[in-house]
Design a protein that fits this description.
alpha/beta, Beta-carbonic Anhydrase, Chain A, five-stranded mixed β-sheet, 11 helices, 13% strand, disordered N terminus, binds zinc ion
Length: 249
């Protein structure tokens, strides 16, 4: 199997990268494939190859720099809206190589592509209330890093996070929301008695806790970190200014 940038190579990637493409190929394999269909598949593969040859590997530090530069443009209202052209749509339709992955809160005020001023195919974004490192979130991020080649994961929490605020209250939660809150409680319980700024410190503690859970609960992510192919970074989004700050761990 060929490898790109230390990760799984292009043919395998092409098969895995687009669920739509995979579905089409699989369904065609189940019946007789016409000449035209074969040609279509071959030309798609050729296009994917063309994209691969243009791919520029981005190190974890470079990936983080690109994100922070984009956030700076967003804060200063100097957005460039990169990678959103019709050409870009066609290019990434064949394969994706997102340079960064985000584990962010589902909060409607923190959309990753907007706050980092990025476009199609740039970010692999997993959003869930409280930026919780759930089993599904970890699986998605393993795919982003180990298969698609993202070299940084940013765990992005935000000020006044409703999920964290709920975890600070000792009240029963109805429905599946309780599952999310239970996954935040261990983070906030630790700091409850040691801070005089509970709302902000609880958010930060939760971001750090979920970042740690990613590597503690995934041998794949932990291995990529040991091999210097991945960094997991904690970051806080300021709802009032739009700025993203890196949290030192
Ligand atoms: Zn939130």
């Amino acid at each position: 199997m060929s490898r790109i940038n230390g990760f799984i190579g292009r043919r395998h990637l092409f098969n895995l990268a687009g669920m739509g493409s995979l579905g089409i190929v699989a369904s065609m394999a189940g019946c007789s494939v016409s000449g035209n269909a074969k040609n279509a598949i071959a030309s798609q593969a050729a296009l994917a190859d063309a994209v691969v040859t243009k791919r520029k590997p981005v190190s974890p530090d470079e990936a983080l720099k690109l994100l922070l530069q984009g956030n700076q443009r967003f804060v200063q209202q100097k957005r460039k809206y990169p990678d959103q052209s019709l050409e870009r749509i066609r290019l990434v339709a064949q394969a994706q190589y997102p340079f960064a992955a985000i584990l962010g809160c589902a909060d409607s005020r923190v959309p990753a592509e907007i706050v980092f001023d990025r476009g199609l195919g740039d970010l692999f974004v997993v959003r869930i209330a409280g930026n919780v490192a759930s089993e599904s979130a970890i699986g998605s991020l393993e795919y982003a890093t180990n298969v698609l080649g993202s070299q940084v994961i940013v765990v992005l929490g935000h000020k006044r996070c409703g999920a964290v605020a709920t975890a600070l209250q000792d009240q029963p939660i109805s429905g599946r929301m309780g599952l999310i809150v239970e996954n935040i409680k261990p983070a906030v319980e630790k700091i409850k008695s040691t801070t005089d700024n509970l709302q902000v410190d609880a958010v930060v503690a939760n971001i750090k806790y979920q970042a740690q859970r990613l590597q503690d609960n995934s041998t794949i992510l932990a291995k990529l970190i040991r091999q210097n192919k991945l960094k997991i970074v904690s970051a806080l989004y300021d709802l009032d200014t739009g700025a993203v700050s890196i949290i030192k761990t």
